[in-house]
Design goal:
It is a single chain. This protein has 95 residues and is mostly helical. The protein has a domain of 38 residues. 35% of the residues lie in helices and 4% in strands. The chain contains three helices and two strands; from the N terminus they run H-H-H-E-E. It has a two-stranded antiparallel sheet. The longest helix has 19 residues. The protein starts with a helix and ends in a 7-residue tail after the last strand.
């Protein structure tokens, strides 16, 4: 597929891109090269190839989500660097 100046300007508008006119020729050549590469990929026979959803064969082991009150306030704040009765103290973010 050949990209022309009009197509380039539409793509640039949709992508909110701005570039100098002197760069148009290089952009048109690059986009044409990319699209021709994609056209080559369309020719590859993918019959019987399963879609790839992950690069790893590992499976997450998840526990059941059960509601409980296992953590009391004293243990929750035991390792807190700063605390105020039953609350964590954090540095001020806004003045």
């Amino acid at each position: 597929m050949q990209v022309d100046k009009e197509t380039l300007s539409k793509i640039a508008h949709l992508a909110r891109l701005e570039f100098e006119e002197r760069d148009e020729k290089e952009m048109i050549e690059s986009l044409t090269e990319i699209l021709s590469w994609v056209e080559q990929l369309e020719e590859v026979d993918t019959e019987g190839v399963e879609p790839l959803t992950t690069m790893s064969k590992e499976v997450n082991v998840l526990r059941e989500d059960e509601a409980s009150n296992r953590l009391d306030q004293q243990n929750a704040l035991k390792n807190a660097p700063k605390k105020d009765s039953v609350y964590f103290r954090v540095p001020k973010v806004l003045d």
